[in-house]
């Protein structure tokens, strides 16, 4: 059982790295960031690919922490 969760944790870890690298970058000019334009960029609703990748990342992070907690419990026995 321990080996199964360890394997799943490693797979999820690799997927988190891949999904994080696939997310689109936020391109902001230095002038835009200094002038306060960065304040409004977080208020727009994400759509399409960006929203999908954000949801996948959140799901993978929840799985990662769940598997880590299960592994900590199994290793304490």
UniProtKB/TrEMBL annotation:
What membrane topology does this protein have? Answer: Multi-pass membrane protein
Chief location: membrane
Ribonucleoprotein listed as a keyword: no
Compartments, record wording: Cell membrane
Could you tell me the keywords of this UniProt record? Cell membrane, Membrane, Protein transport, Translocation, Transmembrane, Transmembrane helix, Transport
Some GO term, biological process aspect, for this entry: which one? protein secretion
Q: Name one GO cellular component term.
A: plasma membrane
Task: Give the InterPro entries listed for this entry.
Answer: SecG
Q: Which GO terms describe its molecular function?
A: protein-transporting ATPase activity
**Transmembrane segments in this chain: where?**
6-22, 56-74
- What PANTHER family does the record tag this protein with? PROTEIN-EXPORT MEMBRANE PROTEIN SECG
Q: Which family does it belong to?
A: Belongs to the SecG family.
What does this protein do, in the record's words?
A: Involved in protein export. Participates in an early event of protein translocation.
Q: What is this protein called?
A: Protein-export membrane protein SecG
Organism of provenance:
Lactobacillus bombicola
